[in-house]
Amino acid sequence: MSSRTYIVEDNATIRENLVATLEELAGVKAVGFSETEDEGKAWLTENDQAWDLAIVDLFLRQGSGLRVLEACRNRRSSQKVVVLTNYATRDIRKRCAQLGVDAVFDKSNEIDALIEFCAGMGSPAGAPLNQ
User: Fold this and answer.
1) Full-model pTM
2) Which positions of the chain have pLDDT values less than 70?
């Protein structure tokens, strides 16, 4: 089973590489993306049955990923929200935890951990996926 994943990321190159990597290595199916806070909040709340995982960058072309995270606070317990940022400082991680985020990953050195997280979502107890 693949995780239906929505991505809020304004850098097209990062977004395209992320989708390709996660689809290939983690069994993720990208169901859409947005580049701004307003688009991300609107899609995630209006389509709350259409996604299992949201990957959110904090610094967007318009607005802030933190407000996207706030909009996802009342999601179903099976839905996961993770942050992928270049600014994974202690303070940012703490703020994200306060907003109910499931994990924070640094773009520069934690992509493997993100892949592992995503791969574990689609299988029971984190067992390897059978492709």
Assistant:
1) 0.92
2) 1, 122-131
